[in-house]
Design goal:
The complex is a heterodimer.
Chain A (H helix, E strand, L loop, with lengths): L1 H29 L3 H13 L3 H14 L4 H13 L3 H14 L4 H13 L3 H14 L4 H13 L3 H14 L4 H13 L3 H14 L4 H13 L3 H14 L4 H20 L3 H14 L4 H10 L2
Chain B lengths: L2 H20 L2 H4 L3 H14 L2 H14 L4 H13 L3 H14 L4 H10 L16 H13 L15 E6 L16 H19 L3 E4 L9 H10 L4 E8 L9 E6 L6 H10 L18 H31 L4 E7 L2 H4 L5 E8 L3 H8 L1 H15 L1
Parallel strand pairs in B: 1-2, 1-3, 3-6, 4-5
Antiparallel strand pairs in B: 4-6
The chains are: A mainly alpha, B alpha/beta.
């Protein structure tokens, strides 16, 4: 009896399991069209429902293992979920399916950058340029790497190509501006910072650098105006705070050396207004402010 | 109806029909919607050429119709005109960011190379003209360096301490701030004479410059390297020799960590980085990459400088140390801090007083840069 009872229990479980399998498969069968799955996945992705999107794209790749778009989307979704090894695997699969898929190559390059693997990242971006000489993204990353290596001539060369291939990216203009700025080509630097700001008016890094160009040309008030602009956007922007503190301290010294203690004190007070812990301003105000 | 009324209505009818004959669009003209619908039907039938004509008309009549632009993208795609298709899909997404289909099509189509669309040339603005002249003058002078070697063409030299902050003071009264300023000036003059590397000083006289301001100066001049010159001191008089510090994520010793944590007290000014979930911040990836790159270059440079010190100076080498110095970390370039002897050690202090020894220190720094 005991055995029979056990046997019927196993049968029941098998039936339930079979029913479950049936429902699972029928769920997929309702959406066997890979295009439907991809569209649903894309919709979930854009709506920020990453887990649901992953399920859809996984199902799509099961039906169509050579679907590059589905693998690429899975790669992006895994990267967003910080599953970087899975992301790497998906993008690698795409490149195995078609080595000319520049989107997957670009992401492989970015993931190499994330791992601090400069040489492999560099190689991936160069591979993209060989496949597509108009790829703005690859030029951008190559130019940025040269910028980081403080090789402005090469950075300018690549970032100009990125700009000319697609002028709609504020970051490209900003980094190109930095490369020009690094070799004192200030008209070009100003122009590129300005272009970045037209595309993204809250780009505080571009505002701060613009300030330095004015400052180094002796237009102190204009520089101060720029950094104040940054503080309006982000009152805790450390660069703008320190730049302003330096500018006010410099102006205070100028006034003091010209014999104008009152003016100097006014500037040191301004320093403390933006940077209350500034030791130099505190000390000098105490010493010369009376 | 009497005869008079009939003739009257007939006359009006003739007037209306003749007006419509001259200006048919006034009443009978198709709207953007009509053209878009026609285009959609033609796409379904596979007649992409006629669909394109209808859809071009639809977007001309209503340049804000995301639906018409989406269909236009499909028509171009059907004709194999990928660049125009992507352009139309982009317009659709710009007008309606929730247009999933168009977004998806852009992503699918831009996975692989697409031809570039010709762009209309605009007349140059005054700043663009100036920039173009500057480029013609300057760019040819720049010698592009092949490879990925880190380039040092601009150095900011920081003379430690100054003004009310005299730094360490030796037994015979030698002040750290005076030695560091003298060394910084000698180094600066030497670089100016050589002319290959531009240099800038954080201070040129006996005044105090806050620590935070020193790296600001380095950023101001877009420097490639920040070198801070210091002289060490210790309660134990026998401590002597030179050492080099650089910024790194982990401190190399407890003492280095203590110094760094003291310096890092200013961190309260920084806006905390809030990580957005489900989002990949490419600029953050680049920022982290840049910082690690600078730290790794600082590490290399620190070892190179210390090696030169060891070879060129009659000083014991105390090696290279690292810590997460906030002040060094804010520099957007590799940065190192040199401790060129112990002012608290009578022998080191006596050497630091000598011009010849100071010249040897500068020699060693210059060789470290090479």
């Amino acid at each position: 009896m005991k055995n029979r009872g056990q046997g019927s229990g196993i049968r029941k479980k098998c039936v339930i399991f079979a029913i479950l399998i049936f429902f699972c498969w029928s769920g997929i069968a309702w959406a066997t069209d890979v295009n439907d799955l991809i569209f649903q996945g894309a919709d979930f992705h854009y709506k920020g429902k990453l887990d649901k999107a992953i399920v859809k794209f996984q199902a799509a790749t099961q039906i169509d293992p050579s679907n590059e778009y589905a693998h690429n989307q899975l790669g992006i979704l895994y990267a967003k979920k910080e599953r970087f090894n899975d992301a790497f695997r998906e993008f690698s699969k795409v490149v195995q399916i078609d080595c000319r898929n520049t989107y997957a190559l670009l992401w492989l390059g970015i993931l190499y950058l994330r791992q601090n693997d400069l040489n492999n990242a560099f190689e991936k971006f160069q591979e993209i340029i060989r496949i597509d000489p108009n790829n703005a993204d690859a030029y951008y990353y190559l130019g940025t790497i040269y910028n980081f290596r403080h090789n402005p001539a090469k950075a300018i060369e690549y970032l100009k190509k990125a700009r000319d291939a697609d002028s709609g990216e504020a970051d490209t203009h900003y980094r190109l501006g930095k490369a020009f700025h690094n070799v004192d080509m200030t008209c070009n630097a100003l122009l590129e910072y300005d272009r970045a700001l037209r595309l993204k008016p809250s780009y505080t890094a571009a505002i701060n650098e613009t300030g330095w160009i004015y400052y180094n040309h002796g237009s102190y008030e204009r520089a101060i105006k720029e950094w104040k602009k940054t503080l309006k956007i982000n009152p805790r922007d450390r660069d703008a705070v320190l730049n302003l503190a330096k500018a006010y301290n410099d102006l205070a010294w100028k006034a003091l050396t010209a014999g104008n203690k009152k003016e100097a004190a006014k500037y040191w007070k301004k320093t403390l207004g933006v940077n209350p812990g500034n030791k130099a301003a505190k000390y000098n105000l105490k010493k010369y402010g009376k | 109806m009497d005869r008079r009324l009939f003739l009257n209505l007939l006359g009006k009818g003739l007037l209306v029909s003749s007006t419509l004959g001259i200006f048919p669009p006034l009443v009978w003209g198709k709207t953007s919607f009509d053209y878009a619908l026609e285009g959609q039907n033609l796409i379904q039938r596979g007649d992409y050429n006629n669909a394109l004509k209808a859809l071009k008309e639809a977007v001309r009549l209503d340049p804000d119709s995301d639906w018409a632009f989406g269909l236009l993208g499909r028509a171009y795609r059907g004709l194999g005109r990928k660049a125009e298709a992507v352009d139309a899909f982009r317009q659709a997404v710009r007008l309606n960011p929730e247009d999933v289909y168009s977004r998806m099509m852009i992503e699918i189509m831009t996975q692989k190379p697409i031809p570039k669309l010709p762009r209309a040339k605009k007349p140059l603005s005054p700043l663009e003209k100036k920039a173009s002249e500057e480029e013609a003058q300057m760019l040819n002078r720049l010698g592009p360096e092949a490879g990925l070697k880190y380039q040092v063409k601009r150095v900011v030299i920081d003379a430690g301490h100054g003004g009310f902050d005299s730094g360490a003071v030796g037994m015979t009264g030698l002040k750290e701030k005076d030695v560091t300023l003298d060394l910084a000036k000698r180094f600066h003059q030497r670089l100016q004479r050589r002319g290959e590397i531009k240099s800038f000083l954080t201070r040129t006289g006996d005044y105090y410059v806050p620590l935070s301001e020193r790296t600001v100066i380095a950023n101001q001049y877009q420097a490639d390297l920040f070198i801070s010159i210091h002289i060490n001191a210790n309660k134990k008089r026998e401590a002597h020799g030179s050492e080099t510090y650089f910024c790194a994520e982990k401190a190399s010793s407890k003492e280095a960590a203590r110094v760094a944590s003291f310096e890092n007290a200013v961190l309260k000014y920084d806006k905390p980085f809030k990580k957005r979930r489900g989002y990949i911040d490419i600029e953050e990836i680049l920022f982290q990459f840049e910082r690690k790159l600078y730290w790794s270059e600082s590490d290399k440079l620190a070892h190179r400088f210390q090696k030169r010190f060891k070879q060129g100076l009659p000083l014991h080498s105390r090696g290279v140390h690292s810590a997460n110095f906030y002040v060094l970390r804010r520099a957007k370039m590799p940065s190192i801090l040199l401790e060129t002897g112990f002012i608290s050690n009578p022998r080191n202090e006596s050497m630091l007083r000598q011009d010849t020894f100071r010249e040897k220190i500068v020699d060693a720094i210059i060789r470290g840069l090479a």
